[in-house]
Amino acid sequence: MKKIEQALAAFPVRESIIVQWGDMDAARHVNNVIYLRWAETSRIAYFNALGNEVSPDMGGAGFILGWQDCKYIFPVTYPDTVHMGIRMIGMGEDRFVLETHFFSEKHDRIVAISKQRVVTYDYKTLQKVPLPEKLKEKILEMEEK
After folding, report:
1. What's the mean pLDDT when you consider all of the chain?
2. What is the model's pLDDT at position 61?
3. If 117 and its partner were Cys, which of 30, 66, 110, 128 is the partner (CB 3.0–4.6 Å)?
4. What is residue 119's three-state secondary structure?
């Protein structure tokens, strides 16, 4: 078993992305901003795993990204496939924090780690709102599997 397969087993949600030639920059590795796009893809995969369909025009309460970071560990180059493991690492009254680990299939190793604070937000009143209890329960249930 590859190292990344063992590492991915620790995550309740997984997603894979094929690296595109255009993802690279003049330094001949995947541009740093691409990892933030991949983190977005991982968040949506997590939301979908919870059963919450996310659309740009969802009215009322939904999710909004409050903060994110990315620690770059090893450069990714074309061709490659990046496998992502996504998990919740913290929860507050109106937010939860997701962590995404990015793994290179070609190099069989971790290449980056991103953390993202997701806030429950009422798009009509433009204010934060508490996490619904049902959502908290679904997150905790998924994380325990």
Report:
1. 93
2. 81
3. 66
4. strand
